[in-house]
From TrEMBL:
<keyword id="KW-0597">Phosphoprotein</keyword>
<dbReference type="InterPro" id="IPR011006">
    <property type="entry name" value="CheY-like_superfamily"/>
</dbReference>
<protein>
    <submittedName>
        <fullName>Two-component system response regulator</fullName>
    </submittedName>
</protein>
<dbReference type="InterPro" id="IPR050595">
    <property type="entry name" value="Bact_response_regulator"/>
</dbReference>
<keyword id="KW-0902">Two-component regulatory system</keyword>
<feature type="modified residue" description="4-aspartylphosphate">
    <location>
        <position position="54"/>
    </location>
</feature>
<dbReference type="Pfam" id="PF00072">
    <property type="entry name" value="Response_reg"/>
</dbReference>
<feature type="domain" description="Response regulatory">
    <location>
        <begin position="5"/>
        <end position="119"/>
    </location>
</feature>
<dbReference type="InterPro" id="IPR001789">
    <property type="entry name" value="Sig_transdc_resp-reg_receiver"/>
</dbReference>
């Protein structure tokens, strides 16, 4: 599945640059932003199919960003990324509509598969809504 539009949101600039390049080489269309407010503006301008969202960010954290994304763009599938395995935060993000979560550093094959799964789920949900 190539050309899936992915928005990568993380305040670690080096991490987003590296991960974005690696995913781009796999055929994904990647846009990177450094925070929640910037992510919402990017989604308002051009909706992504899948969002990769860091939980721990300065300013607007990943949980608040997730809430706003799901409020404004409910069809977008969000995969939470975290370096800290906090079960309560993971459970609450899934309850708020996140598609899945992965621990950093992510396995690129696993991440690519999750992105493809998220894009297929989004497409399926949009088709169901059109009926």
């Amino acid at each position: 599945m190539n050309g899936i539009r992915v928005l990568l949101i993380d305040d670690e600039v080096d991490y987003t640059a590296t991960l974005g390049k690696r995913l781009g080489r796999r055929g994904f269309s990647i846009r990177t932003v450094g925070g929640g407010a910037e992510a919402l503006a990017a989604l308002d301008a051009e909706e992504a199919e899948v969002v990769l969202l860091d939980i721990k960010m300065a300013g607007m954290d990943g949980i608040k960003t997730l809430q706003e994304i799901k409020r404004r763009h409910p069809a977008v599938e969000v995969i939470m990324l975290t370096a800290h395995a906090n079960t309560d935060i993971v459970i609450s993000s899934l309850a708020m509509g996140a598609f899945d979560y992965l621990l950093k550093p992510v396995n690129l094959d696993e991440l690519a598969a999750k992105i493809e799964d998220g894009a297929m789920r989004r497409k399926h949900n949009l088709e169901l809504g059109a009926r």
